[in-house]
Design a protein that fits this description.
The protein has four helices and no strands. The chain has 81 residues and is an all-alpha fold.
């Protein structure tokens, strides 16, 4: 629910499908990181995730693995369309 009702439509469309598809596959440690990611502001998350479509990897060091996973999922989903 928190992945689909973020406050900005852009993040709903990134995190919603990710959570529907990937939450069951996350390890306990990855779930903890995802919980921490959900506590961040959309205004911060959006550039952290979308910058990964290029060469940049911004964001807090602790969240880099889950940011990379979300961005990779979003990129693959975008390329299928």
């Amino acid at each position: 629910m928190r992945s689909w009702r973020r406050g900005t439509k852009e993040m709903d469309l990134i995190l919603g499908p990710f959570s529907d598809s990937e939450l069951e596959r996350l390890t306990a440690a990855e779930l903890d990181l995802y919980e921490a990611l959900l506590a961040e502001n959309d205004q911060d998350l959006y550039p952290w995730i979308t910058a990964r479509l290029g060469d940049a990897r911004p964001g807090p060091e602790a969240l880099l693995p889950i940011l990379d996973r979300v961005a990779s999922f979003a990129h693959a989903r975008l390329m299928r369309k």
